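Exercise 7. Given the encoded structure of a 499-residue chain, write a plausible sequence.
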């Protein structure tokens, strides 16, 4: 299927070319289509990969699905996760990372399990809504050259062996760990110190096994670390460490796989769906942007899976980059705005990767004391862990910048709607009603000229957050992070000027 596959010309012109139509590329294309940006997505494979890969996303990602109008399509396809527990060889609980089961501050649950082919189908089906978006499947990019008016992209249609070219203002590489675009940009990958072989086993229950539970379980072991993950429906996953002396390929044979699964299930319990040998890495690209070339997702960063944040980080890349590209292309900001993309996203994803590496140390017991939260050492009571929400580096700020960089909640408004549905993928000024009444017309006009939606709502949730923040107004970016706040009309004026 190729949504909106227009007739091909020898050289066509688009604003953005996206290389790769995995979850990150498809999310970026939806966000650009939502803003009316013309883009083409070039994907080498003919079909969505049919087997499981990523299995977790969080409330920020579901909020992005809400932004692009696909949350209702995703909700029936997910399972709300109760969280994760870390246990030792004796079954002793070391670390309890339970997730709240209610709706959180972002108006969604904090943790979801999903089946990646389902998620990709939802994202790709969403692309047909946007007349400015074209998807080219079985299309391999083999050359990218900067030109005076943009970037020349050369590709091959693998179905016909025909060559084609297009010109784009910007090219975004969402083409994975072996990214061509990253190689063309240049610059080394920073090694964050984790490289281990693990066997990933995806299975489908043949019969009910409620004793396996809904929690993900990290089996912290000096002998053989392992992870159990409850997926959607009857899907279950095990990730099992491969020991240094072992032949990884031999471990993928069914008899060897079932032997490894013996502590949990038998062949009568599960049917093997996929068995794959992975080397889990931790790394960051040193350069995410070179002129008109940019990176997002696994092209820019690699993380071990112990936090379930690999795909989530890529989706945040898309949420951060899409509105900046649109503002630059629409002449609302200069090209320098795109330099803030790596400045903000790289330190943010680094925090997730470093915590995932620490948890990897706990799971394989090589660095248990360093991995556990402060005050929780082996031999004591189990520690409790909460989901982290790193703040963005304060690159884009204005007015009173103390709250800048935190992700804003999504309050329920007085009319029963959610904030993001009222605002869309735009800037929002959440303002106390009293300040809104006394706001000078000049500031209102400035906010309107910069496409900022003023939300002066008396809903208790919005009022409570403003009071908690200590602000009379908070300016929220399209990616839902706080640009800055104001405690007075003067600070609100400075805040409006900062957009």
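Solution.
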């Amino acid at each position: 299927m190729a949504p909106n596959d227009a007739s091909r010309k020898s050289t066509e012109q688009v604003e953005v070319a996206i290389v790769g139509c995995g979850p990150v590329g498809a999310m970026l294309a939806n966000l650009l289509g939502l803003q009316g940006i013309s883009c083409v997505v070039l994907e080498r494979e003919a079909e969505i990969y049919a087997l499981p890969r990523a299995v977790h996303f969080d409330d920020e990602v579901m909020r992005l699905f809400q932004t692009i109008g696909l949350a209702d399509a995703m909700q029936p396809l997910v399972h709300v996760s109760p969280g994760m527990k870390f246990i030792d060889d004796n079954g002793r609980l070391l670390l309890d990372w339970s997730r709240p089961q209610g709706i959180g501050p972002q108006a969604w649950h904090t943790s979801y399990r999903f089946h990646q082919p389902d998620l990709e189908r939802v994202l790709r089906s969403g692309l047909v809504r946007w007349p400015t978006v074209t998807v080219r499947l079985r299309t391999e990019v083999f050359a990218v050259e900067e030109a005076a008016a943009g970037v020349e992209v050369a590709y091959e249609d693998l179905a016909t062996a025909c060559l084609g070219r297009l010109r784009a203002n910007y090219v975004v590489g969402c083409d994975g760990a072996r990214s061509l675009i990253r190689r063309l940009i240049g610059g080394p990958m920073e090694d964050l110190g984790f490289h281990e072989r693990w066997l990933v086993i995806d299975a489908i229950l043949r019969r009910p096994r409620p004793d396996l539970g809904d929690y993900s379980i990290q089996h912290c072991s000096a002998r053989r670390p392992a992870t159990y993950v409850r997926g959607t429906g009857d899907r279950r996953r095990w990730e099992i460490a491969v020991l240094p002396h072992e032949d990884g390929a031999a471990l993928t044979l069914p008899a060897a796989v079932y032997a490894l699964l013996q502590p949990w299930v038998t062949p009568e319990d599960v049917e093997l769906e996929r068995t794959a040998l992975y080397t889990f890495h931790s790394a960051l690209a040193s350069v995410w942007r070179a002129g008109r070339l940019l990176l997002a997702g696994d092209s820019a960063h690699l993380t071990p899976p112990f936090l379930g944040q690999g795909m989530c980080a890529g989706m945040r890349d898309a949420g951060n980059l899409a509105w900046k590209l649109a503002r630059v292309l629409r002449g609302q900001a200069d090209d320098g705005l795109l330099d803030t993309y790596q400045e903000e996203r790289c330190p943010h994803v680094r925090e997730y990767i470093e915590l995932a590496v620490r948890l990897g140390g706990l799971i394989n017991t090589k660095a248990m004391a360093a991995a556990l939260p402060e005050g929780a050492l082996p031999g004591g009571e189990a520690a409790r862990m909460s989901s982290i929400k790193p703040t963005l580096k304060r690159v884009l700020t204005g007015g009173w910048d103390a709250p800048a960089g935190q992700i804003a909640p999504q309050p329920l408004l007085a009319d029963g709607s959610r904030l993001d549905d009222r605002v869309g993928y735009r800037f929002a000024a959440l303002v106390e009603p009293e300040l809104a009444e006394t706001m000078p017309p000049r500031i209102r006009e400035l906010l309107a000229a910069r496409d900022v939606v003023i939300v002066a709502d008396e809903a208790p949730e919005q009022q409570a957050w403003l009071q908690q923040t200590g602000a009379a107004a908070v300016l929220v970016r399209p990616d839902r992070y706080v640009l800055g706040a104001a405690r007075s009309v003067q600070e609100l004026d400075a805040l409006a000027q900062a957009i």
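Remark. Residues 202 and 237 are 5 Å apart (CA to CA). Students should compare their own answers with the one above.
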